[in-house]
Write a structure and sequence with these properties.
Blueprint lengths: L18 E6 L3 H12 L4 E7 L2 H10 L4 E4 L6 H11 L4 E7 L3 H10 L3 E4 L4 H12 L7 H18 L10 H11 L4 H8 L3 H15 L4 H5 L16
Parallel strand pairs: 1-2, 1-3, 3-4, 4-5
Helix pairs in contact: 2-3, 7-9, 8-9
Amino acid sequence: MPPSAPPDDGVSGASAAPLRVAVVTDVGVYREGLAASLSTRSETEVVATAGCLAEALDLLQHARPDVLLLDLGLPGAGEVVRAAREARPETKVVALAVSDTEQGVLACAEAGVWGYVTRDASVDDLVGRLLAVARGELTCAPAITASLFRHVGELAARRGPPADAPALTPREREVLALVSEGLSNKEIARQLSIRVSTVKNHVHNLLEKLNVPRRGAAAARLRPDDRGAPSLPVA
C-alpha cells in the first residue's frame, strides 16, 4: 500500500485528526486484515503498510506515521525500532501480537518499543492501545507492571551505586539498616550498645550525607530485598 501524503498542519478541523498508523508485518493476510480493520475506524488512518525491513525503513521517512504497528518477528525488527527512535522519534512503535507474559513484555521493553498489543486483543482493544501510546501512556496487567519493576530493580542492583553516591562508615550503615526496620533511637542504641546521643549524631550525619529531610527517606535508600547491605559505598 503506497504511503499517503502527511496531513496539512495549517488548519485543524473541529475534531482531532485521526491517528496516522503504519502496519509492518511479513504475514500478508494479517497485514491486510489489520489495515482494513483500522481503516474503518474514525480514530485511525492507515497511511502505509510494509512487509519487509526495507519497506519499513522507507515508510518511516515518507509516510511519517504517528504510530508504527510492528511485528517483532519480522527479520530486522530491531533495526526498525532503532531507526524510529533515532531518525523519527515522534513515531511511536507498538509491538504486535505479544504474549501477555513476563517474558513477552520484557522482550518488548528491551527492544525499545513504546507499547504492545496482545495476541487476543480485539480491534477495539488495539485502537485503545494505539491512542494510549499516542498520549504517552502504557497500559498492562498489574502482574506485568510488577515484573517490570522487579526487572528494573535487578538491573539497578547489578549496576551498583552511582559514582557520586555518598560513602557511609560501617557504623552508619548499621544505623541506617536499623532505621529502615523502624527502630527508634533508643532501640538502636540498645541493640548496638552505644549511647542514644551517639545514635542521634549518626542519624544526623546520615540525613546530611544522603541529602534527605527525614529518617524514612534515608531508609528508602536501602534496597527492599537487602536491608542489611545498603546500596551505598563504604567510606
